[in-house]
Amino acid sequence: MTVNFNNGTVASLSNLLLSDWTDNSDALVHSYITAAGNSVGKTLTTSQLDAATTYFLTHEGVPGSGINVWQLASNPSIATIKLVNGQIIVGQDGLLNPGNYLTHLLGVTAPTNAQASEVVKVTYNGNSQYQYSFSATPTGYATADGSYNGRYQVPEPTTLLMLGLGFIGLAYWHRHNKRELALMA
């Protein structure tokens, strides 16, 4: 899907392919699974991460469906798209409580309030990034099977805040070091 914002900015949002997950030695799989573990307070060992990666890439997410776990996580349900301070913010509708999904993925019983969104590939200004979240708010609606009852904002507002604070810190550091270099000259 291509989005044209009022200011002329163009962004592309898409589902993921297997190659998105497996490029760079499964970097995205590892990042997603590690973040999922962190979201439920579980730090995975190398062997647990390897087992979860194999499960994610090779096992059916819904038994008998022929759809692997990675495919379930690769098909985001886009609800909203905003451009905020140069950052693309995507609202995804998904399951408010996908605890069984996380339990199977991580190999540990996930808390009843565990959450996980699908992943959306956002291409903007020539760069692609993968956005997902492990924090949802209720949508107030759902399908008959309970889908779409959780809204995930990606990146999360706290991520944007941390990025903003990071940029402010870098600017301060640069300014401070520039002043010290000038004093040394």
Give structural notes.
With 185 residues, the protein is α+β, with helices and mostly antiparallel strands. The protein folds into 2 domains: 2-154, no CATH class; 157-185. It has 5 helices and 8 strands, in the order E-E-H-H-H-E-E-H-E-E-E-E-H. The chain has helices at 18-39, 46-58, 69-72, 99-106, 157-184; strands spanning 2-4, 10-14, 78-84, 87-94, 120-124, 127-131, 136-138, 150-154. A 4-stranded antiparallel β-sheet has the order 1-2-5-6, with no helix packed on it. Strands 3-4-8-7 form a 4-stranded antiparallel β-sheet, with no helix packed on it. A hairpin with a 2-residue loop joins strand 3 (78-84) and strand 4.
- List segments where confidence is low: pLDDT < 50 over at least 5 consecutive residues: 157-174, 176-181
Distance between the termini: 53 Å
Contiguous helical run count: 5
- Helix/strand structural class: alpha+beta
Quick description:
The protein is α+β, with helices and mostly antiparallel strands and 185 residues long. It has helices at 18-39, 46-58, 69-72, 99-106, 157-184; strands at 2-4, 10-14, 78-84, 87-94, 120-124, 127-131, 136-138, 150-154.
Fold blueprint:
Blueprint: E1 2-4, E2 10-14, H1 18-39, H2 46-58, H3 69-72, E3 78-84, E4 87-94, H4 99-106, E5 120-124, E6 127-131, E7 136-138, E8 150-154, H5 157-184
Antiparallel strand pairs: 1-2, 2-5, 3-4, 4-8, 5-6, 7-8
